[in-house]
Every structure is written in C-alpha cells, then in structure tokens.
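Sharing a chain and its predicted structure for anyone who wants a worked example. Both blocks are below, sequence first, tokens second.
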Amino acid sequence: MFIIQKIISNIFISPGIFIIALLLILIFSLRKKRTLSRLLLIKIIILTYLLSIEPVKDMIIQPLEKKYNPITNEQLKTGDSYIVLGGGIYDNAPTSLGENTGIPSKSAMYKIVETVKLYKIYPMKIIISGGIVYSGEKSEGSVYKNLMISLGVPKNDIIVEGKSKTTAENARFTKEIMKDLKLKKAILVTSATHMNRSVYIFEKYGVEVIPNPTGYQSRYKESYGIESYLPNSYNFVAIRSAIWEYIGIIFYKFK
C-alpha cells in the first residue's frame, strides 16, 4: 500500500500530470482535433503559472499551517517527552570530519533544530520516529540521532524508532515505546503542513500529543510584491506537499 501511495503521488502530484496532459494534446493534434488541443494547451499554461506563484501557494498551504499554533512555555512544561517525525535523509551524503553519518533533508532539519532548541530549555526524552523509507542504508531516526548528539543532546535521552515508513506506523510504534517508558504526553514536532494529519493519526492510536509545528512554508505577508507573481519552482514543490497532505487526511479519515 505504501509503495502504491508513493507511485500515485509521483504521477498525479508532480510534473508527471503535465507530461500526461501534453501527451494527450499530442494525440489530439495528430488526429487533427486542433481546437481541443489548443484549449488544453492554454489550460495547462494557466494552471502551471498559477501553481508556481506565491499567492496561490499560500492560499493552499496556510489552511494546513494555521490549524495549530507553535507551542508556548506553559504547554512545554505539560509534556514528558518529545516525538520527532521523519522527513527524509540523504544517507550516503558526505559529512564533515569523515563521519559518513548521512544528513537530514531540509524539511527534517527544521524538526531537529526545533527539538534541540526545546530540549535545551526543557530536557526530557526524545523519541525519533522514522525508518528506512525506500531502499536506503540508514534509518531516518539513526541519522537524526547522530546530528542531535553532535548538537549537544545526551545520547541516553534519545530513543530511535527505526521501523516506521508511514505516519500511522510512526504513531503505532511510538505508542509502544511510550508505554514501555511510562510516558503519557508528548510534544509532537513535525512540519506545519504535516501536523494536521499527524495529530489526527496519533490521537486515533490513543497517543496524547501537544502539537508543535515547525518548518513553515508561507511568509504570512500582508501584501505581495511583483516578485510573488513570478513563477518559482519552490512554490510548485510546496503546493505538491500540501496537496499530498490533503489527500492523506481524506485517506485516513475514510480508512
């Protein structure tokens, strides 16, 4: 099921959908249905432009990001642990000092830095949940742990859950760890776009969490300048991740 989900996302929430559309236009043009071909081409041009500008990106992403606010000092003191969800790694990427420990993705880096920051204010156990998603050599959890240790977190305070591949598995396996350690309420650290789905799934599995979204992808500007209306590939990528989250929320609710 996991592989099927990823294949679908890479076809329909990526440039793959435009490749399919352009192939259809080619077929129609070969059959001399040129009016329909022109109409399809115009629609693709408009859609591509809209999906690559900042106002549309913000309109799609912000409903996800605004669901939960960042944690407060008062909330921080009510938790007994941190849960950090995986967000990708480059497991064979070069690292300094010849350590060859791999590096987190950009999305994961936000989560790691946020967790270390909170840990230094209020130290407690950190559960890192993330396994080998595809065919890598290292789990997400092990790579994040190495970085956290290098940033000053004692290794005895870091527990790695290295089996999960989906958010549901994050919740299920983390619940087992919390039960063994007699932990009751965790600060959940993940990206702002992913938090809505994560909280829903963790609560569904009976894990009490305090949301702490991070890695926001909107700038929350009061107005947009001309540069915001210029096509930018980053906006397309951000919209893709948001659409994946909307699909994930619907999938888990119906499941």
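Comments welcome. The chain has a mean pLDDT of 87.
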